[in-house]
Protein: Universal stress protein
Amino acid sequence: MSIVVGYFPTAEGRAALRHGIDEALHHQSDLLVISDPADAEACAVDVKSAGASGVAISSRPAGEAGMAAELIDASYAEGVTLLVIGLRRRSPVGKLLMGSISQQVLLEAQCPVVAVKPQVSTVG
Structure:
């Protein structure tokens, strides 16, 4: 079994990585983290710090086809049981139009997709 995470160096991407690690621990799976090539360095830093979790984590940059295509292709790979992506919070109007990568992945992935949002601080 394997879990795939779509990573961006944002709060949403890091929330997806944390959730992917939690799922991998729960299901005793390995984790594949796919990032945009421009974000490979930030991904390596976050993956290295996540290595202490005890989960077998590998990472690779997305190919020329882009993040959406790479995540969708990964969802069809043998043994992939879950795909985790991060979502940004949106205004009411923004909720009508989801991000193009997120929407494409949710509609076309072969395996179940979990879309997570980062925690919001409630200071007050």
User: Anything to note?
Assistant: Residues 2-116 form a domain with the Rossmann fold fold (CATH 3.40.50.620). The beta strands are 2-7, 30-35, 57-61, 80-86, 113-116. The chain has one domain: 2-116.
